[in-house]
Amino acid sequence: MKRWLRFHQAMNKKRWFEPDREKNGPITLFDFSTELDAVDAALVEQNSNNRSVWRTTDDSIIGGYSSAKMQLVRTSEDLKRIINGQESIPPHLWDQNRTTDQKSNEIKNDSIDGIQHDNGERGDGREHCDTENDFLPFVRWKGTIDTRVNKEKKVHRSGFCSILSPEFPMAGVDLDGRYNGLEIMCRSDGRPYSLNLKVESFIEDDLFQCFINIPPTNTPGSKVCQATGGKFDQVVFLFQHFAATAGGRLRARQRKLDNAVKIQSIGITLMDGVDGDFEFDLSRIRAVNYDENGVIGEAD
């Protein structure tokens, strides 16, 4: 409910105080530099029905062999711990383990370079290696896809992992037709992830999907800042490019997803049919207006 209220307070300001009310500037849905979203991410649950926090799921629910975990990386100290195979610092110890780079909770948007694209291409971003204050909190989702099918189960295919955001209450957050797409700030290993939107719909099992199909953020052999993990990509997906799916398959009769959407939750899935390890970092998700000149307006 706090997240829902935060969104609508920001939306009301945009309705009444921005000069061009039809082209509002970006509005945040999830940002792990804020304490509210960071706590939810730190309390991530596996295969859970608790829809108030971040969740992970995989094909083990159908007897499969894929597995993955999601970890909050709030500071450079967290990053070092995770690289060394340790767990990040839990929320109840945050105040006791404050470090300089935890000032990143008040990151300014102008500290991030990058050009947004509506087709899954990415802009050129700089590596954030200048100072500890350049650290961007994020969640690291990594694991292994295994496409073997459990012959004891009545399934014909396997091999997927997903992360799911907390659900917004009150049937979702209403974009009121004021935005034409979503922007995600991420680091990808180049595998084709799907971005999934659960929106208010008269068909209960509707899920709208668009693929995050971009080259690896940090190419093999490139220099990556060990303190921050390297640069992030900012990628925009227009609502008109999302396809209607059900049960992981495209619907025979497609319906366009227009800008007047009410978002209930957001997820990311890897189900590319390729065995092997994967790694995906997510820092922020915003609703944006995008045209040929890029993202329109100032951030909330």
TrEMBL record:
Q: Locate the NADH:ubiquinone oxidoreductase intermediate-associated protein domain: which residues?
A: 138-281
Q: Name one Pfam family in it.
A: CIA30
The annotated regions of Basic and acidic residues compositional bias extend over 98-127
Q: Name one GO biological process term.
A: mitochondrial respiratory chain complex I assembly
What InterPro entries does this protein's entry cite?
NADH-UbQ_OxRdtase-assoc_prot30, NDUFAF1
Q: Which GO terms describe its molecular function?
A: unfolded protein binding
Q: Which GO terms describe its cellular component?
A: mitochondrion
Q: Where is this region: Disordered?
A: 90-127
Quote the protein name from its UniProt record. Answer: NADH:ubiquinone oxidoreductase intermediate-associated protein 30 domain-containing protein
- Tell me the organism: Pseudo-nitzschia multistriata
